[in-house]
Amino acid sequence: MNDFQFYSPTEFVFGKDTEAQVGTLVKKHGGTKVLLHYGGQSAIRSGLLDRVKRSLSEKDIPFAELGGVKPNPRDTLVYEGIELCRRENVDFLLAVGGGSVIDSAKAIAMGVPYEGDFWDFYSGKSPAAALPVGTVLTIAAAGSEGSGDSVITKEDGGLKRGAGSDLIRPKFSVLDPALTCTLPPYQTACGATDIMAHVFERYFTNTTEVELTDRLCEAVLLTMVRETPRVITEPDNYQARANIMWAGTVAHTNIVGVGRDQDWNSHGIEHELSALYDCAHGAGLAVIMPAWMEFVYKHDPLRFAQAAVRVWGCQMDFENPEVTALEGIRRFRQFLHSIGMPVNFAELGAQEEDIPRLVEKHGVGTGKTGGFVALSAEDIAEIYRIAARASV
Amino acid sequence: MNDFQFYSPTEFVFGKDTEAQVGTLVKKHGGTKVLLHYGGQSAIRSGLLDRVKRSLSEKDIPFAELGGVKPNPRDTLVYEGIELCRRENVDFLLAVGGGSVIDSAKAIAMGVPYEGDFWDFYSGKSPAAALPVGTVLTIAAAGSEGSGDSVITKEDGGLKRGAGSDLIRPKFSVLDPALTCTLPPYQTACGATDIMAHVFERYFTNTTEVELTDRLCEAVLLTMVRETPRVITEPDNYQARANIMWAGTVAHTNIVGVGRDQDWNSHGIEHELSALYDCAHGAGLAVIMPAWMEFVYKHDPLRFAQAAVRVWGCQMDFENPEVTALEGIRRFRQFLHSIGMPVNFAELGAQEEDIPRLVEKHGVGTGKTGGFVALSAEDIAEIYRIAARASV
Q: Which of A7, A219, A259 sits opposite B11 (nearest CB)?
């Protein structure tokens, strides 16, 4: 186990109708003027936005509004939000939506007190300050409601990059599973895939003696394997939605990943797909992650066999652990297919001839990247090729 | 799953020599005058206290000192600490030790800003304020380094009672597994038992649809089953100590217990043993917890069978789930015996003829207590009797 620091000071308020507590929570965490940040029409149509506004008004908290966040949130709206917050003297960001809205709010939160271009934080610079952020989550997926991470896409050139700091961990997150019951099966499955990917990116590690975090990772994965098919067939199953929603948060606060090297190559390789085709991040991961696994599993077949046995319930082949390892990957892809996810480029809407362009944009150059297996540009091209041609 | 609030704002700093960061951490969390609170000679002899003092001095943080905390910490020292803090204008409590020292520091932290008797908070009253607390943990056991709980014993009458509030969750906790490598096997095993008990008290619940927290509970238990025997035979196995230390924290922040009814009867029933005989809390739990399980398992044999299969690796007897349930309890007691824990009154140093006195002090009266199975005074007497006569 490696040394680590773990700091997750977010107050999570979980359960039915918890959005009615937003006003109280903003006040408790020091907000006096709020920017209400959201996406498209669904938060308006469902009445959620009105309920949130009512809760703020009941506590006499004034607010400005900025809607229009799109999936794969853009820098252009972030600039707009920064301007708006400065003009209106906003001191608290309230994101109502999924990971895209929350990530956009985090970017604005870092940008407001910063004199330079907020994109600096998505190019490696650490922020020195940020406005506080609170969230009302509507999609179980990104885990941004409990993480110190944010991913933004630069509209000019389609660069998709991440920033990370404990400063942008939300002060509070309101998690009402009922809000996710209206989510269509495809988006639900995309979210579930993202949650599982967040765990797998932590699970495949070269760090030894990580029994506890291995087991915690498996706990989240086993939960997703049980609960996801239930919400695909019964979208308004509150209890299954509740387990998935909390699993999504637990998957990404880093409680399941502390003390171990991690490998975020699948996320990085996927980001080029969603940046180029504007596909859902989870759908891109469904195509990339098993392909990445097939490319790297020989690096540590027993670790992959462990996942196969403990998560997918495979019988261990003690004579041929690699057979078990591959069987686990096969079952993962089958699982993704069974919940309606694409498993190859054609199903995703991607083209194999774009691979050189995807690799170039990924920008590894002549170097290598990755914490489990370091990948060259040619390795990444091969993973895209495996993903392009995969089948169940 | 039930609605819940989860708020664990403690900054955990985990790894070798992390105690050298104490000065920086106190400063970061706003401390300007510290009470250094500790137990007996071991923190002095090992040089730990000197290292902590050096770290404070390097950051020009003045401190007062109060040592002498005993296992099952007493109210008398808490009163002394409150007086000392007021006299010296202390604004930050720094506990260096195990759960007893931390619990004592938490009690002082609540007592200083309170005009009444601090014991009110151990009699059901909620505190309105508390001084901030930081910890340097030396024993993996109580989980107090990440919890909002504290247990204190009233010297006059031997009453052992708990208090709980988010206000006394530590601001930071420094976790250096190397500090636990000198712990003798008996104390190590007591700590491991306490950790497992903290999980089991959450695991046995009547709340349904708790897949994620079930799995998280099992993750911690499986880790303890693997790692505890390793540190009994190799006390200075740093990696096994590290997994146990972090498991002890995870077991009690409540991340494994949110959204479910819990049952703390085993802890309550044990408290009378350690209050009367001044035995180690973990040793008392080793005697009580399997006895409690034997008394209540018929309330939900399948839940006990689930633990037997998933934690103890039992084969499920689908014709007779109760057989599997009992086999799991048997393996738990055998495990405790194998790590050197007592399994009955004689091994603990308790007397069966004291049972009426124990039951009376427990104070259920004519009522019932417990979240999984509500127990009457007679039920509790029967659990003491099972515990008195148990064997492996």
A: A7
**Chain segment A4-63, per-residue pLDDT in tens:** 999 999 999 999 999 999 999 999 999 999 999 999 888 888 999 999 999 999 999 999
DSSP state at residue A144: G
Are B263 and B371 in contact by the 8 Å Cβ rule? The answer is yes
Please give the structure tokens belonging to residue A155: 């509209």
Cα distance between residue A363 and residue A368, in whole Å: 10
CB-CB neighbors (< 8 A) of B10 in chain A: 7
C-alpha distances (whole Å) from B392 to each of A70, A178, B386 are 62, 48, 13
At residue A324, φ and ψ (nearest 5 deg) are -65, -45
Alpha helices (H) in chain A, listed in sequence order: 22-28, 42-45, 48-58, 75-88, 99-111, 185-203, 211-233, 238-250, 265-277, 281-296, 301-310, 321-338, 345-348, 355-362, 377-389
Q: Which of A35, A128, A46, A45 is nearest to A87 (CA)?
A: A35
Q: Per-residue pLDDT averaged across A74-97, rounded?
A: 98
Instruction: Return the residue matching tokens 């009402």.
Output: A176
- Burial bucket for residue A28 (CB in 10 Å: 0-12, 13-18, 19+): middle
| Nearest in space to B344 (alpha carbons), one of B281, B294, B389, B392 | B389
Which domains occur in chain B, in start order? 11-179 (3.40.50.1970), 185-389 (1.20.1090.10)
Which one-letter amino acid corresponds to residue B31?
G
Q: Which residue of B has its CA nearest to A247?
A: B212
Gap between the Cα atoms of A216 and A256, Å rounded? 6
Q: Is B229's Cβ below 8 Å from some Cβ in A?
A: no
Cβ neighbours of B227 in A, within 8 Å? 211
**Nearest CA to CA, how far is A212 from chain B (Å)?**
5
Name the minimum distance, in Å, from the CA of B189 to any CA of chain A.
18
C-alpha distances out from residue B30 to B92, B94, B232, B259, Å:
8, 12, 39, 33
Smallest CA–CA separation between B120 and chain A, in Å? 26
Q: Is A225 part of the contact surface with chain B (CB cutoff 8 Å)?
A: no
**Distance between CA atoms of residues B162 and B267, nearest Å:** 11
Length of chain B: 392
Environment class of B354 (CB within 10 Å of its CB; exposed 0-12, middle 13-18, buried 19+) = middle
Chain B partners within 8 Å of A9 (Cβ): 8-9, 11
Burial track A240-279 (b if 16+ CB lie within 10 A, e otherwise): bbbbbbbbbbbbbbbbbbbbbebbbbbbbbbbbbbbbbeb
Contact predicate B245/B294, CB 8 Å: no
C-beta separation of A283 from A163 below 8 A: no
Flag whether pLDDT at B365 surpasses 90.
Answer: no
The answer to whether A255 contacts chain B (CB < 8 Å) is yes
Q: What is the pTM of this model?
A: 0.97
Confidence grade of residue B11 (pLDDT, cut at 50, 70, 90)? very high
Contact check, Cβ <8 Å, A246/B259: yes
Does the interface predicted TM-score (ipTM) exceed 0.90? yes
